[in-house]
Amino acid sequence: MPLATPPISRFPPRPIRIRMIPSCSTSKTRRPWSSTPMVPGHRPVSCASGSPSRELTWLPRDAGPSNSPCNSNGRAMTGTSGTRKTHPSALSGPMFLPTDMNPRISKTSSRGYTLVEILVTMTVLGFLFAGLMPFFLQSTTSFFITEQKLRVNNDIRKFTSEMADHAREANHFIVYPSFAATDRDAETDRQRDGESGDLMVLIFYDNPTGTPPLITRPIRRIVGYYRASSNIADPSGEGPVRKFDSDLDSWGITLPSTSDIETLLPSSASVASFRQVIELSKGLANQRLFYNFHNRSIMVKGEILHGDAIKRVSNTYNFTVSPRG
Asked: How far is CA 258 from CA 24, 190, 255, 264, in A?
């Protein structure tokens, strides 16, 4: 059982030698108390009877090598140097441990945040967020408005490009009040000079047939643009602009045909089945989108809208196109 650590001495450590004479004395030798760990070393001595004996020397751990020329067995050490070399096992006995194996206990003080510190931190963060919130809201609104304006411009460019291409190839145009069946089922529904409507039809004629004065021009293609109000009770309300094309869409007609144009138009039941050209628009020509200008040109006067019910972006659109006739 290891002994307790002795009190620290005020004097410098000195080697303590204990004479061990097995043949001359039967007394047991104990390690004396010292403040410094000792390293055992042996050197041979002679007892009174002449029999060999050993002298046990306790050396401080930080002391230099022993001057004894013998090892722990009493035998002379060989080598060029007469100093004793301490074996590492001498420092790992049960009385003490090596320096690098001594446990070190570090005590670190740690504590949590107090309630006052938490309240102060939350108050500072609250003021910070309150100051940054208007900036975030303004940035979000500006980004939304810019995005909707870009969409409006994209609709205008696409709509203008399509109408210009079709009108240059068309031979004639007709404007009707709306896409409803009752507004386009007879020749009397055609809008004259100075009148407006939400349905515009471009007619492409085929080569004339027959001999004068009985010459007929069959219709080979029909392209129409119409604005369908989102509110059935209010035909002049906001709504998308759609397009039908006999070359791309099929609604049960055969072309070329010499029938009246009113009989070749799509059914009113297919009002929402055709491709959407403009997401949302509002007519400005007497609350309509298309205007008959002197029976020679078509004026498109409307307001293109994008956005939602909270924030809406709009742009006025005016465009005039004339078929080649």
From this structure: 148, 18, 9, 10
pLDDT digit string (tens) for 236-284? 789 999 999 999 998 988 899 999 999 999 998 888 889 999 999 999 9
pLDDT tens readout for residues 183-239: 999 999 999 999 999 999 999 999 888 777 778 889 999 999 999 888 877 877 899
Answer yes or no: are the C-beta atoms of 200 and 241 closer than 8 Å: no
- Dihedral sign from CA coordinates of 13, 14, 20, 25: negative
- Percent of the chain as helix, strand, coil, to the nearest 5: 25, 30, 45
CA-CA distance, 132 to 139, in Å (whole number)? 11
Give residue for tokens 């309150």: 130
Q: What residue ranges do the domains of the chain occupy?
A: 1-102, 153-321
